[in-house]
DNA sequence: CGAGCGCCGTTTTTT
DNA sequence: ACGGCGCTCG
């Protein structure tokens, strides 16, 4: 650990006034940087300079010697954001920034767990299972329990387990309150328990465990928790609106005052605890860490994975005496973009009204475009990108967003044809490719030999003639003899296999042994930085994996070979950046990369990504594509309580990423499941004042002209609409132009419930809030208000005439 | 045990 | 439209 080993900047730096830190801040920003107290909530609208405020706040704590670097824990949403923050703090305070913990929730928890794993039955070499890994494990368990007969698919089970873990429910606690007379429920409980035991046996945590188990650890071992409570005196959490319950609990545990009585200068795990600077009171042991959270409830877009908006809306209740600072001035976007964003988000009720503003002028109008097909739309985007590029907008300052990953395909096709350089962030991620997972499984097999999943994965890759029967036999032998799968595999002669299989297994064992010797140095010895790269190369060569790919005549295997080479290059790069990095460090880094953590962002390409991935990023020019009903808002969200509101926030996030130019595009038809369907413009377009948008081609244009000529080169593929039909698809038949002209037409159902009668005791359903029970009705005529208790979201007051409700 | 074929479900978002 | 998975046959 390098924690705090670097000295604070000395001499004039610390004496110097904070002018440079505070320069150019507006009053609320200033307050956010300089406020000192136990709890601070910074409500930071999009583009309000929150990163700058956070970094300056940290810098000012360090400069004033109110905290040592090692006493600061800053949680960001992505590793990339963490890196940027570290760099920016470094620019302000130099070397003093070393030793801070700036990382994501998951990275911070891994760090803690690696240190403390042996406290509760794991080793520090534990594996991190990504969703694919846990899916594979669950698949086996679901099969074993024949649970599919009860409608329990691996995906469904995985979803439920994830949700439960985010709520800090474990298998036992859930079992206690489950309805065990329901057979499906009983089997689910069994699978959950088996799953957890399998993880434990494999010395592995899944993503959700990383958080939840850290919380358990702190609760079960208060003296361990105390180590971290004493250590971190300032905790800062970004994107607080997207924290889930487990993360919230973790923060709570960390900000609690230490309970133990004996502060030791050196804690058990060898971590150094520094005494507080003497002129300050923060060393008082009874006080919990100061907490700063930054968030914007309008940008909460992760409810589907357990983010609980109440964490931020009830912050003041959770932390009495908390200070709240509002940052509303936007420094990113033009007023036109902000006005559009404000208008859209204003349609969400149940939100504190908050309006972004800027003093930098209206800027260009938002450009709208309606393509005939998704390819047509993509061609518009590609053409426009070229126009911008000729105007000296670098490709790296342009981004294309979409709601679902599958939409990227059409864009890619057209971009390739149009020679637009692009990179896709996230998507089918590099690390999810089969060949990469294979290669990583070899590494896991070295680092964590009890991880049976990893060994099973590589058992027959490349093909060694080892099939299901052999695999099961090894597993049974291992179980009978109470040894690990890895050890069983090492003496195949005991299992009565044929000579061919014995030879194959022995060879695999030899390769693994040899690689272990290379990559896992004896205790005390330091492995050379190149160990991971060399070990991986050795594994892939001697196992025959590369040979098999090379020998294959499947054209895709060539690409796979390149990908594996790329992974080897990644290990070399890792060695350069982390001279002391071990195989475990490498696997950790790889397991926790996020979609937005792109490796090279100086690549001079246009970025393509989902709107979710776009959160926290900003670009000069942004293309928001597929702005259609059933896409954004997504069809599936329509029936979920709070779904439509969350979709609106997602759209809002997309819009507010743009600094100067925003393009909103859609297609009139979209191919889905191989079928062409008619798309309707998104309701969110309606919510933007018409004068803000300049339509290059409005939905009305496309309709009334009876089909545009497709500009997409490949729109004439046989089987798609172009070839056969000379007439227009019937659904797009021309209509009268004037009334059709966009804004005022599309799905705009102005809501009017008329004289809907509601009385206390009625049950209603609300588009966003779900079902609820009417407690009372007050007011008269058009202003009658229903007081409703919703099952999902609690009590709300609704204007009966216009609320999106129906009586049940 | 492995290759080939046909069927099915897929597309919401992610650490 | 496509890929993944399971089934069947060699």
UniProtKB/TrEMBL annotation:
Its EC number is 5.6.2.4. It comes from Microbacterium halimionae. GO terms for cellular component: cytosol; DNA helicase complex. InterPro entries: DExx_box_DNA_helicase_dom_sf (IPR013986), DNA_helicase_UvrD-like_C (IPR014017), DNA_helicase_UvrD/REP (IPR000212), P-loop_NTPase (IPR027417), UvrD-like_ATP-bd (IPR014016). The lineage of its organism: Bacteria, Bacillati, Actinomycetota, Actinomycetes, Micrococcales. It catalyses: Couples ATP hydrolysis with the unwinding of duplex DNA by translocating in the 3'-5' direction; ATP + H2O = ADP + phosphate + H(+). It is an enzyme of class 5 (isomerase). The keyword tRNA-binding does not apply. One of its GO terms (molecular function) is DNA binding. This is DNA 3'-5' helicase.
């Amino acid at each position: 650990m390098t924690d705090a080993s670097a000295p604070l900047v000395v001499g004039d730096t610390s004496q110097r006034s904070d002018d440079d830190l505070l320069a150019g801040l507006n009053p609320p920003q200033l307050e956010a940087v300089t406020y000192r107290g136990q709890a601070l909530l910074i409500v930071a609208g999009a583009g309000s300079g929150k990163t700058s405020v956070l970094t300056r706040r940290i810098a000012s704590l360090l400069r004033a010697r109110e905290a040592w670097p090692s006493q600061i824990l800053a949680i960001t949403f992505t590793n990339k954001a963490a890196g940027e923050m570290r760099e920016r703090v470094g620019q302000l305070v130099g070397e003093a920034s070393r030793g801070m913990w700036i990382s994501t929730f998951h990275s911070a928890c891994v760090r803690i767990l690696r240190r403390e794993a042996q406290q509760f039955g794991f080793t520090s070499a534990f594996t991190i299972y990504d969703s694919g890994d846990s899916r594979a494990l669950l698949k086996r368990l679901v099969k074993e329990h024949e649970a599919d007969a009860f409608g329990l698919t691996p995906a469904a089970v995985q979803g439920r387990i994830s949700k439960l873990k985010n709520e800090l429910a474990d298998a036992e606690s859930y079992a206690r309150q489950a309805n065990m007379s329901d057979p499906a429920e009983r089997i689910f409980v069994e699978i959950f328990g088996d799953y957890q035991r399998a993880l434990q046996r494999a010395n592995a945590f899944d993503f959700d465990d990383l958080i939840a188990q850290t919380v358990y650890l702190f609760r079960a071992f208060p003296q361990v928790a105390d180590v971290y409570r004493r250590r971190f005196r300032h905790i800062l959490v970004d994107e607080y609106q997207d924290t889930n319950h487990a993360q919230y609990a973790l923060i709570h545990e960390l900000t609690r005052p230490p309970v133990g009585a004996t502060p030791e200068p050196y804690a058990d795990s060898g971590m150094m605890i520094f005494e507080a600077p003497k002129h300050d009171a923060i060393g008082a042991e009874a006080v919990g860490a100061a907490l700063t959270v930054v968030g914007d409830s309008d940008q909460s877009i992760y409810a589907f994975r357990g983010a609980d908006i109440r964490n931020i809306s009830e912050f003041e209740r959770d932390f009495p005496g908390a200070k709240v600072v509002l940052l509303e001035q936007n420094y990113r976007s033009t007023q036109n973009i902000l006005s559009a964003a404000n208008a859209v988000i204003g349609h969400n009720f149940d939100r504190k009204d908050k309006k972004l503003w800027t003093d930098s002028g209206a800027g260009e109008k938002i450009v709208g475009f309606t393509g005939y097909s998704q390819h047509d739309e993509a061609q518009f985007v590609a053409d426009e990108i070229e126009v911008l590029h000729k105007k000296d907008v670098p490709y790296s300052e342009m981004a294309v967003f979409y709601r679902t990953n599958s939409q990227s395909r059409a864009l890619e096709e057209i971009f390739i044809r149009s020679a637009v350089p692009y990179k896709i962030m996230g998507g089918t991620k590099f690390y999810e490719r089969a060949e990469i997972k294979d290669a990583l499984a070899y590494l896991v097999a070295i680092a964590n030999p009890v991880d049976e999943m990893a060994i099973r994965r590589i058992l027959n890759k490349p093909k060694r003639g080892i099939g299901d029967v052999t695999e099961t036999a090894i597993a049974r032998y291992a179980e009978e003899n109470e040894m690990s799968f890895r050890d069983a595999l090492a003496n195949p002669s005991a299992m009565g296999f044929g000579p061919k299989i014995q030879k194959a297994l022995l060879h695999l064992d030899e390769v693994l042994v040899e690689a272990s010797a290379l990559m896992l140095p004896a205790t005390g010895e330091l492995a050379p930085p190149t160990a991971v790269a060399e070990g991986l190369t050795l594994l892939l060569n001697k196992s025959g994996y590369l040979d098999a790919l090379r020998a294959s005549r499947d054209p895709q295997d060539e690409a796979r070979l390149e990908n594996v080479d790329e992974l080897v290059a990644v290990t070399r790069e890792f060695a350069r950046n982390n001279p002391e990095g071990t195989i475990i460090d490498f696997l950790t880094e790889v397991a926790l990369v996020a979609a937005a953590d792109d490796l090279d962002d100086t690549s001079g390409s246009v970025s393509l990504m989902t709107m979710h991935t776009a959160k926290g990023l900003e670009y000069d020019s942004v293309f928001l594509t597929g702005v259609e009903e059933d896409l954004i808002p997504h069809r599936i969200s329509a029936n979920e309580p709070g779904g439509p509101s969350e979709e609106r926030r997602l759209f809002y996030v997309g819009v507010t990423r743009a600094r100067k130019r925003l393009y909103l595009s859609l297609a009139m038809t979209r191919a889905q499941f191989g079928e062409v369907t008619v798309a309707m413009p998104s309701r969110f377009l309606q919510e933007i004042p018409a004068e803000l948008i300049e339509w290059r081609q409005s939905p009305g244009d496309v309709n009334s002209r009876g089909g545009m000529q497709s500009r997409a080169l490949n729109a004439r593929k046989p089987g798609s609409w172009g070839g056969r039909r000379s007439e227009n698809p019937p659904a797009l038949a021309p209509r009268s132009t004037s009334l059709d002209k966009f804004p005022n037409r599309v799905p705009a159902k102005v809501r009017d419930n008329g004289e809907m009668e509601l009385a206390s005791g009625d049950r209603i359903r609300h588009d966003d809030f779900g079902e609820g029970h009417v407690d009372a009705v007050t007011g008269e005529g058009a202003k009658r208000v229903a007081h409703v208790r919703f099952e999902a979201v609690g009590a709300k007051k609704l204007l009966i005439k216009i609320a999106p409700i129906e009586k049940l």
